[in-house]
Amino acid sequence: MYSITQSARRQDRSGRCCRQLCAPGEVQALQSSGREGHWLVGEELAQLARLRSPRRRRDWLAGRLAAKRLIRRYLAHELRLSLALSQILIGYEALGQPRASLASPAGERWPQAADLLKELSLSLAHSEGWGLAALSGAGEIGVDLQRVRPLRVGLAQRILSPSERARLAERFSCREPAALLLYWTLKEAALKALGFGLRLPMRAVQVELAPQSGRARLRIELPGGPRYAVAAYRSEPPGFQAAVVRLQDEPS
User: Fold this and answer.
1) pLDDT value at position 13?
2) What's the pTM?
3) Is residue 61 located within the same domain as residue 91?
4) Residue 1: its pLDDT value, please?
5) Alpha carbons 15 and 76: distance in angstroms, whole number
6) Are 38 and 85 contained in the same domain?
7) What are the C-alpha distances in Å from 115 to residues 49, 82, 100, 118, 202?
């Protein structure tokens, strides 16, 4: 799996993934420029209208903009299509995972693109005005983005297994809060890939870090048997922790 810094131009369907960041202010700059007009369509507008908090609206828009730009770049690379953001629709599946499609009439005009999007797994996250989206053509994907900050006392006992807490104390004693947030980010991204959100306890996700490589392996304990995942993580943008997790059937 590629690291989360790879661009969509390096994406293929062999199991790699790609990502797109949206910085604070990009949504406002896009809307002020008038270049894309009304880049939200259909149910997206209804979803935005239901958000009352200005902060939630800001973050939601940043995540959507990152996702739409990523899908546009992907289709430009794969099919040489040049789409407006308003021709791309970000909806939801039954378990809450985001799903990209082409808004009508673009879907009827480019059926190959519409079919291709059905094969992709898409995930998005947002924090403090930043948006992050990632997609994969092989395996469900999940992303998370968290601002580095002090965490609640006792959080390690709630989200980490005893073995993870031992590794945390051994490897990261001088920077435990940042390391604990890394575990949180990886575990939340894995649960998003599964479609569970935070409905499954985070301790069900076991994380094995490879600190020098920015990679991790994960094992997720489920009632029907374990699932496995590989991950890439990075302190990007500065002051944040980002993770991309892709599920797989067998341990790597």
Assistant:
1) 44
2) 0.89
3) yes
4) 40
5) 19
6) yes
7) 29, 17, 11, 5, 34
| Same-domain pairing of 12 and 108 | yes
Tens digit of each residue's pLDDT (9 = 90 or more) over 104-117:
999 999 999 999 99
Which residue reads 């407006």 in tokens? 84
CA-based nearest residue to 218, from 137, 113, 227:
227
Residues of the chain with pLDDT under 70: 1-17, 36-37, 173-175
Token pair listed for 123: 């995930």
- Measured in whole angstroms, the distance separating CA 149 from the mean position of its chain's CA atoms is 20
Q: Which two tokens stand for residue 124?
A: 């998005």
Where do the H-state alpha helices sit in 142-247? 155-159, 162-171, 176-194
Provide the pLDDT for residue 8: 37
Query: What range defines the domain where residue 132 resides?
Result: 8-138
Find out whether 98 and 92 touch, Cβ atoms under 8 Å.
yes
pLDDT score at 16:
56
Closest CA to 130 of 15, 235, 226, 16: 235
Per-residue buried b or exposed e for 95-110, using 16+ beta carbons within 10 Å of the residue's own CB = eebbebbbbeebbeeb
